[in-house]
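Regression test case RT-17, inverse folding.

Input:
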């Protein structure tokens, strides 16, 4: 029987703010056993990361403080230790992988220095011994050529490699407990798969426990032993993984499951959770989920529910399971909820709105005093693609494959090196700058990060109206402001919010504002560049529903750039898979997902974390990163990572193999 490694009892962590006392973590209790993975899940703002920082004693003081409760690690109460005593535990016995690896590493120190620093501090060894251990640790986490990487700086490594460095730092002293705070957020599915596989292998090797913090339910299903669902500073449900996924009990947990996109929900509206997580300074008197709950009863407004034992160690903080209110029973079943129909997703045979032929986008590399061209970054390398009016084409692939460059090139934000871009029978790359500017209202782009793409010095109404002014839409200011208010309603925001600034909105609201800005000039074609990648599952569902409603209302055509293949399966009509500047497979969504051909596409699909144990899909673990587009491999670009590599793959790029009028791929496995 496993022993308790960490025990948290009635933990309270509060912050002093100008708006009052923020009760970020407000009386939570849980335990982590030796050798297990315990997961915390919930929306942003629920207190997950603050819980981790509380355990590590890394709260920002004096604003943040330990307001009560116990944190007992191997029999020692951490909250009562001095900073010197805690420093001996932190990094040595308990380590943490932070959410943003790039901002967690010091950009002016080499990778090796930062790994060796922890070893010297906690192991008391010299420089030579620390270097040897650091290189061995870099090798263990799968970093190629660790002796060379030891002397490189963070900016020289990819996102996946940076996360591996963070893991090597965290595990360099073989801790008993590893806290992983969103370790795979915004990573490609293949890199995410590599990182999670690595963590599980090292967990077995070092016999350690993991506190996994994430909002990805698929990641939890494939990696956790037990799960606690957090909402507004409280744990609302806690049980083992199988119980949670087979019989979710709390209305909040059920809604999280219903918000997930996927194949079975195509053509149906995703369930969403209305409203937002309440502010930590103004929690409701009773149940904190009451304002968003469709199952609430009168007692929920006045009395906060405590955790009740539902069955077999399944704890739920909901009055629907309270013995005092046993006559009330939860009627909702997350898998049998009637779905509301949206527009049907069937590929349309109609007019070609966008035709791309032989498209190349190269960026010159200039060196020397005279800045002579020494080579090219081949971001987009000879692509042909047609997008039918009124459909959604998804472009998928790992970071560095050229997806964003392609999206920006087809709407002429990048000048193509070669090839033709024909939009609505007009060849865009033959237009003059003035002609293109007049034509630009026909196509727009929604960027990945709405906060950095919205001017922080302009009010929301001004941001949305700016495009109208440029394209002379509306006869006067009053008419434009009236249109802006209608657009706010269209994207589900209060029109009165037009006098606020971007920083006053949540991530999901900012993305809605970005969508409203795009719609303001009435485009026919929208490029969505990772528009939902960093959003919570509930906010993501709201945005996906909005995309589908707008497509139906305005007859829009989308190019949806993403690495979230569950979103693609739910939303798209057609899919193109991109690898190192070229499209390796394309077809309808059903063809690509149900009759996958290219080994790279198969690897992408197998890497998707799933909550369905019946899929039976075998994991294909890709090794390494996407090669450099400066010097792509000869022959098939994918052959260095392919499990089906043949000799001819290394010499000549494969020609196109067709399986239907719409389904094709470039692979020698299917050549005659």
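Golden output:
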């Amino acid at each position: 029987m496993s022993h308790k490694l960490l025990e948290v009892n009635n933990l309270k962590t509060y912050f002093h703010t100008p708006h009052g006392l923020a009760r970020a973590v407000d009386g939570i209790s849980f335990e982590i056993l030796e050798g297990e993975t315990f997961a915390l899940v919930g929306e942003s703002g629920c207190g997950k990361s603050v819980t981790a920082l509380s355990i590590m004693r890394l709260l920002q003081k004096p604003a943040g403080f330990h307001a009560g409760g116990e944190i007992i690690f191997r029999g020692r109460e951490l909250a009562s230790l001095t900073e010197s005593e805690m420093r001996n535990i932190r990094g040595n016995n308990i380590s943490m992988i932070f959410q943003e690896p790039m901002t967690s590493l010091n950009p002016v120190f080499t990778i090796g220095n930062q790994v060796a620093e922890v070893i010297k501090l906690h192991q008391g060894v010299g420089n030579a011994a620390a270097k040897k251990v650091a290189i061995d640790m870099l090798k263990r986490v799968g970093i190629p050529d660790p002796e060379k990487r030891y002397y490189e700086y963070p900016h020289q490594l990819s996102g996946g490699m940076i996360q591996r460095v963070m893991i090597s730092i965290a595990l360099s002293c073989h801790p008993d407990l590893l806290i992983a705070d969103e370790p795979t957020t915004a990573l490609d599915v293949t890199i995410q798969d590599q990182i999670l596989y690595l963590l599980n292998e090292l967990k077995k090797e070092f016999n350690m426990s993991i506190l996994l913090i994430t909002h990805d339910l698929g990641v939890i299903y494939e990696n956790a032993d037990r799960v606690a669902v957090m909402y507004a500073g409280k744990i609302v449900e806690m049980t083992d993984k199988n119980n949670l996924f087979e019989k979710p009990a709390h209305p909040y947990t059920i809604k999280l499951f219903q918000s997930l996109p996927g194949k079975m929900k195509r053509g149906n509206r995703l369930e969403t959770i209305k409203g937002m997580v309440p502010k930590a300074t103004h929690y409701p008197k009773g149940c904190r989920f009451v304002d968003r709950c469709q199952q609430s009863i009168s007692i929920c407004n006045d009395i906060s529910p405590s955790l009740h034992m539902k069955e077999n160690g399944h704890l739920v903080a909901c009055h629907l399971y309270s013995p005092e209110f046993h006559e009330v029973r939860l009627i909702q079943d997350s898998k049998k909820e009637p779905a509301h129909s949206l527009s049907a997703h069937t590929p349309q045979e109609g007019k070609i709105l966008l035709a791309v032929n032989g498209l190349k986008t190269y960026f010159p590399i200039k060196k020397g005093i005279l800045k002579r061209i020494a080579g090219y970054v081949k971001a987009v390398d000879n692509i042909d693609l047609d997008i039918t009016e009124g459909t959604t084409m998804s472009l998928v692939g790992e970071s560095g494959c050229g997806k964003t460059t392609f999206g920006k090139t087809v709407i002429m934000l990048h000048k193509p090196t070669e090839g033709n871009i024909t939009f609505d029978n007009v060849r865009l790359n033959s237009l003059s700058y003035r002609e293109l500017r007049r034509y630009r209202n026909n196509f727009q782009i929604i960027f990945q990060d709405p906060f950095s793409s919205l001017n922080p010095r302009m009010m929301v109404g001004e941001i949305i109206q700016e495009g109208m002014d440029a394209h002379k839409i509306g006869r006067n200011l009053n008419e434009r402001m009236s249109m802006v208010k209608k657009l706010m309603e269209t994207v589900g925001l209060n029109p009165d919010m037009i006098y606020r600034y971007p920083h006053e909105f949540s991530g999901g609201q900012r993305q809605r504002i970005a969508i409203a800005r795009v719609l303001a000039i009435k485009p026919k074609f929208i490029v969505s560049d990772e528009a939902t990648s960093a959003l919570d599952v509930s906010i993501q569902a709201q945005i996906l529903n909005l995309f589908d409603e707008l497509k139906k209302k305005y007859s829009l055509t989308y190019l949806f750039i993403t690495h979230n293949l569950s979103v693609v399966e739910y939303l798209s009509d057609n899919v193109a898979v991109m690898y190192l500047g070229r499209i390796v497979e394309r077809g309808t969504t059903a063809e690509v997902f149900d009759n996958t051909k290219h080994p790279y596409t198969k690897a992408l699909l197998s890497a998707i974390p799933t909550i369905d144990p019946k899929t039976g899909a075998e994991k294909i673990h890709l090794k390494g990163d996407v090669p450099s587009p400066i010097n792509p491999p000869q022959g098939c670009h994918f052959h260095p990572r392919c499990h089906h590599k043949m000799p001819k793959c290394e010499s000549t790029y494969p020609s196109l193999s067709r399986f239907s009028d719409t389904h094709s791929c470039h692979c020698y496995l299917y050549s005659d």
